């Protein structure tokens, strides 16, 4: 017997913005083989904002994040329908070069995953292979800038070549991964539960860092911490069973959720 179809009516609370969205997702469906994991998602990402994806485990948050930077390109039997525009251009158009597209994004995972290389090389690796700097001095400058921007420079400046990324504390490793994510000069930061495996003090530093980084990046933050989303998100998108059921300013979604799914999730009845 088939399960009853889930057919929600999504609510998108209005947002007032002076700038057009950087990314527009329209009517996005995604299948892993025969199984549909995203249903008709409509989503905007604006410059200089933190947009939090929340919702129960398995509802499609990471899948949606990977659609944005085409990280799924190599996944077999994956099917996409709908449109994803960045600066008004279809990112799945045949003339888009996926590696080039991916470089417009920095990715930070839940578990810090520094390369087993020196602290310096963790940050220098991307810009060196992509030729983003003209010479060694410029590269060194860029590495310093990224480490400063990730709030890590003062702690590591004397150990850049002596220690590897793995010699740092978990919180420092996560800031190193953020420095590495910044090294390709991305427009968008995609963060999949970046504070999910670090302690509360390290979390507070990362949250402060994200608030600073949003001045010149659009940030999508997946989090299982409603307190974190309340503290730092400008807008929130609530996912449920592959549907984006509700989105809007964080204060509106948290204080006056309009859909039964968002209300149940925020009340702790699902997830
Ligand atoms: N590569 C894949 N192949 C097949 N199914 C997948 C793949 N990746 C994810 N899925 C399925 O798609 C659905 C959504 O998964 P996704 O990882 O996007 O959820 P999530 O909201 O990020 O969950 P969590 O909060 O646990 O990280 C799940 O049912 C998952 O099992
Ligand atoms: Mg996930």
3D architecture notes:
With 271 residues, this protein is α/β, with parallel strands linked by helices. It has a domain at 114-185. It is built from ten helices and eleven strands. It has helices at 61-68, 98-102, 119-129, 136-149, 153-156, 170-182, 200-213, 226-232, 250-255, 260-266, and strands at 11-12, 23-32, 35-45, 50-54, 78-86, 89-90, 105-108, 188-192, 218-222, 235-240, 243-249. The strands form two sheets. The protein has a seven-stranded mixed beta sheet, sandwiched between helices. Helix 4 (136-149) crosses helix 6 (170-182). Bound molecules: adenosine-5'-triphosphate and magnesium ion.
Instruction: Spell out which ligands are present.
Output: adenosine-5'-triphosphate, magnesium ion
Q: In terms of structural class, how would the helical and strand content be classed?
A: alpha/beta
Q: What is the count of DSSP helices, taking H or I runs of 4+ residues?
A: 10
Whole-Å distance between the termini?
Answer: 25 Å
The coarse overall form would be globular
**Low confidence ranges:** none
Oligomerization status of the protein chains: single chain
Total count of strands: 11
Strand order of the largest sheet: 1-11-10-4-9-8-7
Give me the strand/helix succession: EEEEHEEHEHHHHEHEHEEHH
Mean residue pLDDT: 96
The radius of gyration computed from the alpha-carbon positions, rounded to a whole number of angstroms, is: 19 Å
**Major sheet size, sense and barrel closure:** 7 strands, mixed
Report strand %.
15-25%
- Assign a percent range to the helix content: 25-40%
């Amino acid at each position: 017997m088939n399960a009853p179809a889930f057919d929600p009516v999504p609510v998108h609370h209005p947002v007032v913005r002076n700038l057009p969205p950087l990314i527009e997702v329209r009517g996005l469906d995604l299948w892993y083989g025969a199984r549909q994991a995203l249903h008709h998602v409509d989503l905007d990402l604006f410059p200089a904002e933190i947009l939090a994806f929340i919702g129960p485990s398995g509802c499609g948050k990471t899948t949606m994040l990977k659609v944005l930077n085409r990280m799924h390109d190599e996944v077999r039997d994956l099917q996409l329908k709908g449109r994803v525009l960045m600066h008004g251009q279809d990112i799945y158009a045949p003339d888009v070069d996926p590696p080039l597209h991916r470089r417009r994004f920095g990715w930070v995972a839940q578990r810090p995953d520094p390369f087993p290389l020196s602290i310096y090389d963790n940050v220098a690796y991307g810009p060196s292979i992509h030729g983003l700097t003209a010479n060694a001095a410029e590269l060194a400058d860029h590495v310093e800038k990224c480490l400063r921007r990730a709030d890590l420079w003062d702690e590591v400046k004397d150990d850049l070549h002596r220690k590897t990324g793995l010699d740092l504390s978990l919180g420092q490793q996560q800031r190193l991964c953020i420095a590495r994510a910044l090294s390709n000069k991305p427009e968008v930061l995609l963060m999949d539960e970046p504070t999910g495996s670090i302690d509360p003090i390290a979390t507070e530093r990362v949250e402060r860092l994200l608030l600073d980084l949003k001045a010149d990046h659009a940030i999508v933050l997946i989090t299982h911490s409603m307190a974190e989303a309340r503290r730092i998100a400008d807008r929130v998108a609530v996912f449920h069973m592959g549907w984006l059921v509700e989105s809007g300013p964080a204060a509106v979604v948290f204080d006056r959720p309009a859909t039964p799914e968002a209300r149940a999730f925020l009340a702790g009845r699902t997830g």
